[in-house]
TrEMBL record:
Belongs to the small heat shock protein (HSP20) family. Residues 87-187 form the SHSP domain. It comes from Staphylothermus hellenicus (strain DSM 12710 / JCM 10830 / BK20S6-10-b1 / P8). InterPro entries: A-crystallin/Hsp20_dom, CS_dom, HSP20-like_chaperone, Small_HSP. SUPFAM superfamilies: HSP20-like chaperones (SSF49764). CDD domains: ACD_sHsps-like. Keywords: Stress response. This is Heat shock protein Hsp20. The keyword Ribosomal protein does not apply.
Length: 187
């Protein structure tokens, strides 16, 4: 092997090492989650829920994305949570949510399948940095408090709901105004 080939091989290996590290971290987190699920037993849910709890369905999911800092992020959703080491089951599911920030606005997209548009309630918190999504239908209940990357103007909110997907667009505000909660109507 020539000196040039050796140099190119080391250079290529250095570039791909970044990706190898990201995938190694993702693999470690996936293995941790799988080990945790292997130890779960359905009777643990029943014992923790208590005798008056309505059982099922149990919804748990996660997605893996690469954050702005280049590190993998794992986001969990559903109605099975781990709080202080104990598994808790809630009647309300936590929907899968994406937040997109543009120069002058923030868009929040949430998956809320199985509920009617008029059963969804949206509220902007008093500090204008959180969007609260709640929905309650005969079969499904959803609840999520979405942290927003900037302060927003609740009066500018526009929301649409189609095929189980809720899209909310809010304009960012530059200056502080009188802070109060605000309910958002869905078109």
């Amino acid at each position: 092997m020539s000196r040039w080939d050796d140099y190119n091989k080391r250079r290529r290996r250095g570039f791909f090492d970044v990706f190898d590290e990201i995938f190694r971290q993702m693999e470690e987190e996936m293995n941790r989650l799988l080990r945790e699920f292997e130890t779960m037993e359905p009777r643990e849910f029943i014992e923790e829920a208590g005798p008056t709890r309505r059982f099922g369905p149990y919804v748990y999911g996660f997605r893996i994305t690469i954050g702005p800092d280049g590190k993998p992020m794992i986001e969990e959703f559903g109605n099975v949570k781990k709080v202080e080491g104990k598994r808790m089951i809630s009647e309300e599911r936590e929907p899968l949510v994406d937040v997109f920030e543009q120069d002058d606005s923030i868009t929040v997209i949430a998956e809320l399948p199985g509920v009617e548009k008029d059963k969804i309630k949206l509220e902007v918190s008093d500090d204008r940095r959180k969007l609260i999504i709640s929905a309650s239908d005969t079969n499904r209940k959803y609840y999520k408090e979405v942290e927003l990357p900037a302060e927003v103007d609740p009066g500018s909110a526009k929301a649409t709901y189609k095929n189980g997907v809720l899209e909310v667009t809010l304009k960012k505000i530059k200056r502080s105004e009188k802070k109060k909660g605000y309910e958002v109507k869905i078109e």
